[in-house]
Amino acid sequence: MVTVFVLAGGKSSRMGVDKAFMNGGVERIRSIALECGAKRVITLCGAVERSQSFQGEVWPDPIGVRSLMDVLAWAMGQVSGRIQLIPCDAFSLEAGGMRVLLDSEGGVPIDLNGRRQPLLSSCPEGFIIKDQSSISSMFSTLPSLDLGELAGQMENFNSPRVEPLSLIHI
């Protein structure tokens, strides 16, 4: 069984618009994951006030967490089986890329620029986080996944584009 965690708890301050609702947002990612065979999709929404903003299974951050690393370590400890992380700003991710991630034996995909994308990590059953000092270090023991022509789908967007409003799904 694969559980997908959709990461939607950020404030999107660099974007100027909440990324969780851009380009179809969390709902688009959730739909793709279910279409591709994920058995469970959980949106990690951040503050409890955001819980009502999303459909399906939604988890707010537990009291006392201070970082994304804390949230991920906590959430991953709550489920068994394989885990797939997908950030809400994976705007280029489509069904083909999702299927490859869900079918992988575990790893961190490489984007078109040759960078590892740890927020798209595929964690095999029994994966243990050994270093929680940064997002990269949490998944450093996982192999890199070269997805070839699908590498363009393995990116997230952390800064505004020339026309960021064109990504907003109305």
Can you walk me through this structure?
The protein has 170 residues and is α/β, with parallel strands linked by helices. The protein is built from four helices and seven strands; from the N terminus they run E-H-E-E-H-E-H-E-E-H-E. Strand 1, helix 1 and strand 2 form a beta-alpha-beta unit. The model is unreliable at 159-170 (pLDDT under 50).
Tell me, what's the shape? Answer: globular
In what range is the share of β-strand residues? 15-25%
User: How many separate helices?
Assistant: 4
SSE pattern, N- to C-terminal: EHEEHEHEEHE
| Largest sheet geometry | 5 strands, mixed
> N-to-C terminal Cα separation, in Å?
33 Å
User: In order across it, which strands form the biggest sheet?
Assistant: 3-2-1-4-6
Q: Give me the Rg, rounded.
A: 15 Å
Structural class: alpha/beta
Low-pLDDT sequence parts: 159-170
Mean pLDDT: 88
Helix content: 10-25%
Number of strands: 7
Defining key terms:
globular, disordered C terminus, two-stranded parallel ribbon
List the helices and strands and how they pair.
Blueprint: E1 2-7, H1 25-35, E2 40-46, E3 57-60, H2 68-76, E4 82-87, H3 95-103, E5 108-109, E6 122-123, H4 135-138, E7 144-145
Parallel strand pairs: 1-2, 1-4, 2-3, 5-7
Antiparallel strand pairs: 4-6
Give a quick precis of the structure.
With 170 residues, this protein is an alpha/beta fold.
